[in-house]
């Protein structure tokens, strides 16, 4: 299977963002089955968080956003990991930042609601981020079988919490996806280091797709989408601009790394799973 990541500069127009995704999917060669990852907030980004809540409310009855993403997966015959979209939660004033996986038939295979919300101070034009104002945190982890391979799901700020990645690995993940909208400041400081660390310590493929550029509300995102091997090597990357990158998933290479250095067997904490509140 081939692993792919699409880098976007999403705006507040769902139609524009769908068109950008389709343009990248159309460029893929269909030589083998592909898993394609989209960034966080792939269909709406650069507007007010309250606008995301409004979009989640509009979409509640029709599930149009998921429907359109499923159709893209079917049209281009890919497993599509749709970075994240806003989904209205059981608390009517909040949405979940949710990732969904679609099969080449357009069927929804699974999903994940972002657990760790970005409530931080950053030295950029925004200064402060308060994701939990309108977003509700998820309460479960998710591993989805894609073409017979276990894929663990995370979103952006989750990258800073190695316990989550360890649990995904303990539940069989061999690939972990990281759709993101890292800020330019935090991305320059930590993005690559964290991605390589998560790949190395868990001996998994990491597929990371980012938002990039300056968005309508002035927010700047880092981009630098990349695919990393279980040994921590950057197999391919796209620093700036829109585009798609791909690298082959090689089960034998993953097995080789895990057999040579069996950290999962050596781990003294492997049966002590964390719980989230």
Automatic annotation (TrEMBL):
The keyword Hydrolase applies. Residues 1-251 form the CN hydrolase domain. InterPro entries: C-N_Hydrolase, C-N_Hydrolase_sf, Nit1/2_C-N_Hydrolase, UPF0012_CS. Gene3D superfamilies: Carbon-nitrogen hydrolase. Keywords: Hydrolase. GO terms for molecular function: hydrolase activity, acting on carbon-nitrogen (but not peptide) bonds, in linear amides. It comes from the Bacteria. PANTHER family: DEAMINATED GLUTATHIONE AMIDASE, NITRILASE-RELATED. Belongs to the carbon-nitrogen hydrolase superfamily. NIT1/NIT2 family. This is Amidohydrolase. It comes from Cognaticolwellia beringensis.
């Amino acid at each position: 299977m081939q692993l792919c990541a699409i880098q976007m500069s999403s705006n507040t127009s769902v139609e524009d963002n769908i068109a950008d995704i389709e343009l990248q999917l159309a460029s893929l060669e269909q030589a083998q089955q592909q898993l394609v990852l989209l960034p966080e907030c792939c269909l709406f980004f650069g507007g007010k968080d309250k606008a995301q809540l409004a979009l989640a409310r509009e979409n509640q009855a029709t599930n149009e956003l998921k429907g359109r993403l499923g159709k893209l997966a079917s049209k281009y015959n890919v497993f599509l990991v749709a970075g994240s979209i806003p989904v209205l939660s059981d608390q009517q004033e909040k949405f979940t930042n949710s990732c969904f996986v679609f099969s080449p038939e357009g069927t929804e295979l699974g999903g994940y609601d972002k657990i760790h919300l970005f409530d931080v101070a950053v030295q950029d034009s925004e200064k402060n981020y308060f994701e939990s104002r309108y977003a509700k945190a998820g309460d479960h982890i998710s591993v989805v079988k894609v073409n017979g391979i276990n894929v663990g799901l995370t979103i952006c700020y989750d990258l800073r919490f190695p316990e989550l990645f360890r649990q995904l690995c303990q539940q069989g993940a061999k690939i972990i996806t990281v759709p993101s909208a890292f800020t330019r400041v935090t991305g320059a400081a930590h993005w690559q280091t964290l991605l390589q660390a998560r790949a190395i310590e868990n001996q998994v493929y990491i597929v990371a797709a980012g938002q990039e550029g300056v968005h309508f509300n002035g927010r700047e995102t880092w981009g630098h989408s990349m695919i990393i091997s279980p040994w921590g090597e950057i197999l391919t990357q796209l620093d700036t601009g829109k585009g798609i990158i791909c690298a082959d998933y090689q089960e034998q290479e993953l097995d080789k790394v895990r057999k040579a250095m069996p950290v999962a067997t050596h781990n003294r904490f492997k049966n002590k799973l964390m719980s989230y509140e």
